[in-house]
Amino acid sequence: MHSILVIGAGKIGSTIADMLDETGDYAVTVADQSVKSLEAVATDRIKTVQLDFADAVALQEVLKGHYAVLSAAPFHLTGHVAKAARLTGVNYFDLTEDVATTRMVKDLAEGSTSALVPQCGLAPGFIAIAAHDIASRFDKLDTVRLRVGALPQYPSNALSYNLTWSTDGVINEYIERCEAVVEGKLREVPAMEELEEFSLDGTRYEAFNTSGGLGTLCETLEGKVRSLNYKTIRYPGHCALMRVLLNDLQLSHRREVLKDILEHAVPATMQDMVIVFVTVTGEREGRHVQETYARKIYGQPVAGTLRTAIQVTTAAGICAMLDLLVAGELPQTGFVRQEEISLDQFLANRFGRVYGGERLEDVDVNGKKRLDAAA
Questions:
Q1: What distance in Å separates the CA atoms of residue 174 and residue 249, rounded to the nearest whole number?
Q2: Please, what sign has the CA dihedral across residues 317, 319, 320, 321?
């Protein structure tokens, strides 16, 4: 059995631990500062250890002897885990959407004897795998559009939103600059801009720029595609209200205040869904064509406990990448990009199968153009 350390005993970390433990192929230890969170995740097989993630010495000591560390820590602490993994020679995986952290991981991977695999969740993560796989089937690329939403099934407040994952992560992706490829060149574009509307299966949505969802895909496809961008999907009206909070009330400069407001005013829900929507256009055999991958995924039980769609998809992404490393299907050392794995390989994995989801057939972007989902 491979010994795995999961950093963070929150919603995602506990789901990761249960997924891995349920297979019987991994010996799982979960580390967290909170004794209460550790008590909730501990079982006869899952071990726990109380740990201050910012304590470099203690972190390295806990990492020693493990095959891999999977970080489900808040984005601002992920870098500490990456550094400790590099120093101890432990394989490293994370879920971060933070661009600066991923750049640091890439630098740490130079000359590493272990694999450093960042951005292994939904977006960044699976969305880049799907987009790159579809793009590879074209002779010449024109546009690559990635859209992802973690949404309540039954929106009932003005924001048309419920908290389904890290509040810090949501705020970060709404504020930080976003990467995109514009006219063939990698550029930074502002978050919460370039608002668009579209429909899936008859339901209207909006989408706008958010940070971190592309992972390393911009760097991989720069110079090969005219336009590449990532946007978060929400119900119509959400973007306008968040702009009031972030810009007009200037809460983008007071993140802790915004976090407190959201966590006290916006309820959590177990009734969520994840939408994955990738559209690629370009030339194939002399014709201008388009191919789309569109899926809707709902929550499901993990180890006998119902988990939300965002918990299941995020945890499945990082668990699948761990499985693929163990199986020798990923590079064993250095910096590993999500797009280095094929869509078929990922979906064939026991964890990756979660992303099969419900196929979306009726896609009408901007109310004008119908797109047929790929098989």
A1: 15
A2: positive
